[in-house]
Write a structure and sequence with these properties.
Strands 6, 7, 8, 9, 11, 12, 14, 17, 19 and 20 form a ten-stranded antiparallel β-sheet that branches. The chain is mainly β. The chain has strands at residues 40-46, 51-53, 58-65, 74-87, 94-105, 114-123, 129-135, 146-148, 156-169, 183-185, 188-192, 196-200, 209-215, 220-228, 236-241, 249-255, 263-269, 273-280, 288-308, 322-328, 338-350, 354-368, 372-380, 386-400.
């Protein structure tokens, strides 16, 4: 039957098996296998047929970018494509630079900054910069402009993502200073020169291996590393199992003795306890495999960026340093002023009398919901020449990213 009860809030989880229709949805968390409408917006604008004399700034188009539909947080971009002709009135070849600007008026009724999250100090890659990281994928939170604290503004660069950053090694004595912490099964398990571990097959038919039990967090990706030495007379195998029995293995990889570098594997683990097993992959008595540098590390996604320390570090320097950081798409520009958020400069060689050219400029504003006043400007340094717009198109895009509690 229809749901008629009129309530202001729902505490807990609301499960809807069907279609949820609403003019406004406001929630800290919204999960759905389908989300229709307003997830992606694209708007089309067209420039006037403007003429540009040398050196002057000319507004090619002024337009408004609407707030996002349903006030959903979205990654927003502005792209301008400008086709133009240059008339020189001379039989000589001329040369000069042309500028295309994307500008946004800094809001006065909403905060100009965007909250990003907690950043941790990660090192000093070069003088004047610090590397910081955030735990998770925060790429959508950044765009043009600067980053910093709430009232500090710093340049940033080298924004990157690492999907599988390895954390603490969970293996005990994986470097084999002796064989403490490991248990041999079948064959002969022994220390090899006090810095590696050897497992030798014997005359029995049992499989020869050694193992270690490790506690893990189910539902995460782990980095497994192992190395086999070239002195081995048999290839090896590295295994993850739910018990000390190889027959319960859920991951296994061969390790040829001819490949002596440390081998690395990414494994999705869905149990709370695993057994790391190293096996001599042979049934011949007397053959052996020598292993070293076995490790198992939980991984996490990290977003890295380098922030300028000119004016002071944003994140306190040193291991353990952390701070809340913000994205400032308009830097420290005052509210109500025009801020250039993208500049494209190209040098052109114009053939006798006239030529046709194209330029593009694009600005990524980061994630937000608010409306903007925008404009596209052009300028050129082709002295005595005139530029005429043949076609100019602007597209704005707003793409839902999932950060609806930002």
């Amino acid at each position: 039957m229809p749901f008629y009860e009129d309530i202001k809030t729902i505490s807990g989880n609301l499960v809807v098996d069907g279609t949820l229709e609403s003019k406004h949805i406001k929630t800290d968390s919204l999960t759905a296998n389908k989300f229709t409408g307003a997830t992606h917006e694209q708007y089309f604008y067209k420039m006037d047929d403007k003429n540009l004399s040398a050196f002057s700034y000319v507004n090619l188009l002024e337009f408004d970018m609407p707030e996002t539909e349903l006030s959903l947080v979205k990654a927003r971009t502005i792209k301008a494509d400008w086709d133009f002709s240059v008339s020189t009135g001379t039989s000589s070849v001329t040369r000069g630079s042309v500028y295309l600007y994307v500008q946004v008026k800094v809001p006065t009724d909403t905060p100009p900054w965007r909250f990003v999250g907690t950043a941790y100090w990660g090192g000093q890659p070069q003088t004047g910069w610090e590397t910081v990281y955030l735990q998770g994928n925060y790429l959508n939170y950044f765009g043009v402009g600067q980053v910093g604290g709430l009232n500090t503004f710093r340049e940033y660069q080298n924004l990157t993502l690492k999907n599988f950053h390895p954390l603490t090694n969970l293996v005990t004595n994986g470097g084999f200073n002796g064989i403490t912490g490991w248990t041999g099964v079948g064959g002969t398990f022994s220390s090899f020169m006090a810095s590696a571990a050897g497992i030798t097959q014997d005359s029995n038919s049992d499989r020869a291996y050694f193992y270690q039990e490790v506690s893990v967090d189910a539902g995460h990706t782990y980095q497994l590393q192992a190395q086999i030495y070239g002195v081995s007379s048999a290839n090896g195998k590295i295994i993850l199992s739910t018990s000390s029995d190889i027959e319960d293995a859920f991951f296994a990889r061969s390790m040829p003795s001819s490949v002596t570098s440390v081998q690395e594997f990414l494994v999705d683990i869905d149990v709370d306890t695993v057994y790391i097993i190293a096996e001599a992959n042979t049934s011949t008595s007397g053959q052996y495999s020598v292993f070293d540098n076995i490790s198992l590390k939980k991984t996490e996604t990290r977003t890295y960026l380098d922030i300028s320390t000119s004016g002071g570090a944003v994140v306190p320097v040193g291991s353990g340093g952390y701070a809340t950081i913000y994205h400032h798409p308009f830097g420290n520009a005052a509210g109500g002023t025009w801020k250039t958020v993208a500049t494209k400069v190209e040098s052109f060689t114009v053939p006798p009398y006239s030529g046709n050219f194209s330029m593009s400029a694009e600005a990524n504003l980061g994630i937000e919901t608010i409306p903007h006043e925008c404009r596209i400007q052009g300028r050129h340094f082709l002295s005595g020449d005139t530029i005429s717009t043949t076609q100019g198109i602007v597209k704005t895009k707003s793409r839902m990213t999932g950060q609806q509690n930002t």
